[in-house]
Prior knowledge:
- By secondary structure, the protein is mainly alpha-helical.
- Helix content is 70%, strand content 4%.
- β4 (470-473), α21 (478-491) and β5 (496-500) form a beta-alpha-beta unit.
Amino acid sequence: xxxxxxxxxxxxxxxxxxxxxxRALNQPIIIGYIIAGIIISPFLFKTGASTEIINIFSEFGxxxxxxxxxxxxxPKVIREIGISSLIVGLVQIATTFGATYAVARYLLGFxxxxxxxxxxxxxxxxxxxxxxxxxxxxxLDSLYGKISIxxxxxxxxxxxxxxxxxxxxxxxxxxxxxxxxMGILSGVLVIAALFxxxxxxxxxxxxxxxxxxxxxxxxxxxxxxxxxxxxxxxxFSMEIGSLVAGVILSVxxxxxxxxxxxxxxxxxxxxxxxxxxxLKVQLNSILGIxxxxxxxxxxxxxxxxxxxxxxxxxxxxxxxxxxLTGTTLGQISEFSLILVGLGITFGQIGPEVMxxxxxxxxxxxxxSSYMIIYSSQFYNLLSPVLNIFQKKDIKREIKLDKKYDAxxxxxxxxxxxxxxxxxxxxxxxxxxDFNPETITNLKKYGVPAxxxxxxxxxxxxxxxxxxxxxxxxxxxxxxxxxxxxxVVREVNKDCVLILRAHTIEDALKLYKAGANYVLTPHFLxxxxxxxxxxxxxxxxxxxxDERTSxxxxxxxxxxxxxxxxxxERN
Length: 570
């Protein structure tokens, strides 16, 4: 037993040191965990160390990861992602899978089963990496961020189906089709029964359980493990059971609270999981799999973004949105490694597939992280050649016969309230947005709207901004707002510019560049409440009018298709 603790101490210390260095280089810490495992493996195995206990820890990590993913796969999420994300996601998965399968099978010489695993593995993108980097860049609420999240949700749902299929055929690869179908059908019946419990029995139980935070935490872990054990017993895998456990609890009002309580456990066990992946990649085997990993990395980093950009082109998105979405999803997923791990466990593929996928993951996450962090710079460099990923008629001739008092750049939750004020003031206004679906919806309500990308200098120069009195931007990107200031100030020095910023630093930059006022939504809410408290008494009557007005506004916003869904899914 003491030996296990010594091994864990060495592993965790090495992981900390390597991860600290990786983090200093602005790389995802997951890469540090995997590299630490690769570094440790020769020394660990030379001492005859057993990885049995550590492997159990990594299994816990997978279960908790899938449980939390399930908590954020609420059935209503399909309605929230939008038709464009649905179709783009499905086309990307199918096309990437087909191309990767062909390359793996006929160019790299993998077996048929191995090529299938590799194909689906490369079709999936990393939820953990993308959510972390988009959050760091404050781009979760941007158009390309929302589309990326929508595609990730589709990928997660497809991964669920694949995991169920793999588990159902694990014991009989000779009758894959029939057994797979029967396995999925039996799984669907079990899941349907569990959802019945989740909708009609659990809510009453959890209402009492949630009165104690300790009981809620214990129940959550218990529910995850019981369903993982149940699915293992009926012939599926514990991974599917953990995922289903999360999905069933996702309809609970306590889903977010449960997720926050489980996350620290998940993070610890996932560290062990990724270290184990590194342990499985022997240094002396890297040269043998390097060529295959480079080819597969090229598919993830180049072909997958091209497929995404080409598909999005036909939905009318701008080349910038297409490029940013494509580069964001250009890596392979932690789900890919879990799937390949199951294939090895069931004896369907050999360890060389895992080694290749782990090395591919390291390469793709390493390079795609830089592509995401410096996406604007890459776009500026490649912009001239990206015209092929934008419809030729995207720059329709702008026919604006009348002058406008105000132009609103970016229609979203903030823009909704601003637009109402412009209507009340009876100002002649124009809305600019680069989401085709938004423009279509606005025109249904008779709102004068124009499709265009504010980051496109030629487009800005075609707008009638010489005589406008007010320009408002709800777009959070500081680079776009600085460009807007430059263009407007060049031809209209008297125009009032109201812009939006995510951070204090960005707000100060925009003020220095010439903005008249900068919206900082994260701080304005607190300031408004402070004013309410200052001018009100402590009774409910003082807040009745504000409450009534707020409820009315929220319902009106919701009726027009706006929502504020939880997007931090992991």
